[in-house]
Amino acid sequence: MTLTIMMAMSGMAQNSYIVKTKSAKKSATEKKADTNTSGESEEEEATATDFISQNFKYQSLCNWKEGMKFMVIPEKYDLVVNTFCDASNGKEVSSGKLMYKIMIYKNHTETPEGFARINFTCQDDGKAYYYQIPRGSFDDYCYGKMGVPTLAYLGDVDIARSLLMGKTLYTRATLYREDTEYHGDGYAEVKVPANEEVKVVAIGVGTRKFPVKIIVADKNGKEFYQNVAMSKTNCGMRDDEFIMDNKKFTFYGSFELADENVATSKEYASYIGQTYYTRYRTTMTNEQGKKVTVMRLSTFTIKAIQAQNGTIYRKLTLKSLKTGEVFYKDVCFEHDDNVAGDIDGHREDYFNYLFIKGAADMKGFPPNHVTAIQQGRVIKGMSKKAVKMAKGSPDRVAKDRNGREDWIYASEGVIVKFDKNGKVM
After folding, report:
1. What are phi and psi of 324, to 5 degrees?
2. pLDDT digits (tens, 9 = 90+) for 72-131
3. Of 158, 166, 317, 387, whose CB count within 10 A is highest?
4. In 3-state terms, what secondary structure has residue 74?
5. CA–CA distance, 296 with 315 (Å, rounded to integer)
6. What are all long-range contacts of 128-131, with beta carbons under 8 Å and residues at least 24 apart?
């Protein structure tokens, strides 16, 4: 280990922004980090309709104000390509040497040669440093999302501490992390059930992209964490990059505020524990976070209903009656033509269109009939009960003198013919 890295690790032990789960292995006795650092913004209740937008304002580089605090959190690339220069001599400074140091934004200037610089004072050593913009003017640079490499915005951490410490949350993701190293960034992924009640036990700095490290403990005291983006100030990522695997690195991708969840649970308590089946084929999210297709007439038990960030949508936690697998589906209980999406002419995200109370009873049907029913198809040999499950009730029934029936589905232009034994011909 190099001298600069060792020095950084030593400074880390004294830094209240560095927090670890109980699983981290200590190589020496260290002073416990104080996680009660006061925030710089007004303390507000964490039960706002939109907790993030009301409390964590995006600060564009163009509008940074003197005194904004950041921490140097280099990634591997940053340890090779230096970010800062010493203002006293213009020489580059190793990112490893500045690791975990707090930089306070001062201003931006341009040199006589036309180079734009973003200036900082280091809280830890009192020295002045600057980041020189690679090309172009400050105005050209600041409108992008690039920001200043290595810097994690501590304003979000301070606000999160003032609003979330000791609060009860519910898990939204299923994969979280626990620290494996006290003097490093080693971690192991841990699987956690969705909708698990947890308590915030520590908040510190994460990474530049996801600067707020939220450590929570479950009812058994097991600690795990997620690094999340709050305001996205200087994170270097566009909003459209917070999708797929990165979604869990947003606050609402990993956590639910308890007050929102409790209110929703009370409102929809009559649905919890009830059995419903799907009227149409639809997409849901499985426990691994993958979108999957769920066939019509699939039966589920509703395990939980959660609020969705101040919108009319609610997140269903559904357990398959057939396989025991858990799935998630966003639906609205209020019918709104402007927000509900079409599927086969129906409103697929409106609960009462998609779900029917009860279990879809397909006992006694041959396997190929079950598959056809779930696909909404009619095949030879089906009974009238099977056809009704596959297509619904006919618009009209025509009978001949021998008792044979034709079921007419006028809207689809389909006629299903039955033999005298009531089987599809």
Report:
1. 80, 0
2. 999 887 777 899 999 999 999 999 999 999 999 999 999 988 899 999 999 999 999 999
3. 387
4. coil
5. 19
6. 128/86, 128/87, 128/88, 129/84, 129/85, 129/86, 129/87, 129/93, 129/98, 129/103, 130/84, 130/85, 130/87, 131/83, 131/84, 131/85
